[in-house]
Amino acid sequence: xxxxxxxxxxxxxxxxxxxxxxxxxxxxxxxxxxxxxxxxxxxxxxxxxxxxxxxxxxxxxxxxxxxxxxxxxxxxxxxxxxxxxxxxxxxxxxxxxxxxxxxxxxxxxxxxxxxxxxxxxxxxxxxxxxxxxxxxxxxxxxxxxxxxxxxxxxxxxxxxxxxxxxxxxxxxxxxxxxxxxxxxxxxxxxxxxxxxxxxxxxxxxxxxxxxxxxxxxxxxxxxxxxxxxxxxxxxxxxxxxxxxxxxxxxxxxxxxxxxxxxxxxxxxxxxxxxxxxxxxxxxxxxxxxxxxxxxxxxxxxxxxxxxxxxxxxxxxxxxxxxxxxxxxxxxxxxxxxxxxxxxxxxxxxxxxxxxxxxxxxxxxxxxxxxxxxxxxxxxxxxxxxxxxxxxxxxxxxxxxxxxxxxxxxxxxxxxxxxxx
Length: 420
Ligand SMILES: Cc1cc2nc3c(=O)[nH]c(=O)nc-3n(C[C@H](O)[C@H](O)[C@H](O)COP(=O)(O)OP(=O)(O)OC[C@H]3O[C@@H](n4cnc5c(N)ncnc54)[C@H](O)[C@@H]3O)c2cc1C
Ligand code: SF4
Ligand code: SF4
Ligand code: SF4
What we know:
The protein has helices spanning 9-13, 23-26, 56-59, 85-90, 96-106, 133-138, 152-158, 169-179, 203-212, 249-257, 303-314, 326-332, 334-352, 369-383, 397-419; strands at 32-36, 42-46, 76-82, 112-117, 126-130, 163-167, 188-194, 217-223, 231-238, 241-248, 279-283, 296-300, 318-322. It is an alpha+beta fold and 420 residues long. The protein folds into three domains: 9-59, Alpha-Beta Plaits; 76-200 and 262-334, Aspartate Aminotransferase, domain 2, CATH 3.40.640; 203-257. Helix 9 crosses helix 10 (249-257). The longest helix has 23 residues, at 397-419. The radius of gyration is 24 Å and the shape is globular. The site of flavin-adenine dinucleotide (FAD) has 30 residues, from helix 5, strand 4, strand 6 and strand 11.
């Protein structure tokens, strides 16, 4: 297929795929399959014989489509946990997401929900559509790796009634984009998201297991549970049979999940809070060491969801409090806000330079000196391709200054030569 191809081939080629696993669902010609690549991420493969170049997969691919709606919707903040002690201890944070999904089904607010199961026997977890409370409960906890979305849109289209979807921010944006002009959009009652810093690779779990026993074969991972911040539990097969071991969640994150095994595309992600979701859920790190069991932080942008959470609290299935204040939120989720701000500020710089911007930036974004410096440094480095041999010297400030001067001199010499 030529470079004019309107499928997602170039997204993969230029490392912009965030392994969302959705494009095969969008292709009605069955031209997209996946393989797990050497880095442990989903990688789409296009069958050129089947692809008719319709462009549908590309239009909804979150790897290259930035969030269009960048307005700040009015939000209310809550934090809380399940009153079922077992759920409270063994969900990811406080079990609010699982309780919410169960409540929606039990009270017939929706007919189906999506959740992610590890029951398949495969190492890759799978997104499913269900109305079975026991299965929803079993699907609790975050899956810190790529997730299969095999045939999920077909299933959503097939089931009768309404549905609530739980997904990562990039997947929410992609699904919303795809559903927009399709009949099925009427079925989707709620989009819920999980805050997301990055998606770790499948290799992260293998790396931890090999550290435990080089010959062990990984069977299953249970992410989180066992209080807050909890543990990662690994079920492995070694010479002694089936064994389980666990590592503290924070320690393994520092040992590689966060640093070495993140999807490179996630570094460019500009929507860690899923701004277009009806509600987004995360860990309540602002409670610091006072919280031993776990608490879910909830950002709610839809009044109906606020009412549902209030009714759940009244019915005593969850404990809920409003807060914390904006200052505590900014401080706790600084890394995520910083990602969003970097994106907005880079666009602001482009706007000032009368260059093409990815999203229109309103006057609410004031240019911050820190980000402006980063922007110009990045621009400068990007221009330095031809001086690559000098890069090792750039760490010393004065040498960088020298280079700028050399660069200027060179330009003025060229300029005068041209005039001669
Ligand atoms: C890849 C990833 C990165 C995250 N990064 C952060 C972060 O940086 N900061 C932060 O505060 N929170 C982060 N979270 C969210 C956090 O881990 C919890 O999921 C959230 O606090 C909800 O907790 P809970 O106890 O209420 O959820 P639970 O009651 O345990 O329910 C979680 C629900 O989410 C579904 N689910 C799990 N994994 C996935 C997945 N990969 N895709 C779609 N659905 C899924 C489950 O099926 C279940 O229904 C991340 C989650 C994921 C999956
Ligand atoms: S980001 Fe998602 S839609 Fe885009 S190529 Fe990757 S798997 Fe496909
Ligand atoms: S361009 Fe159309 S036919 Fe080709 S892979 Fe994408 S969705 Fe399928
Ligand atoms: S960081 Fe962004 S792009 Fe990466 S998995 Fe999370 S939501 Fe998707």
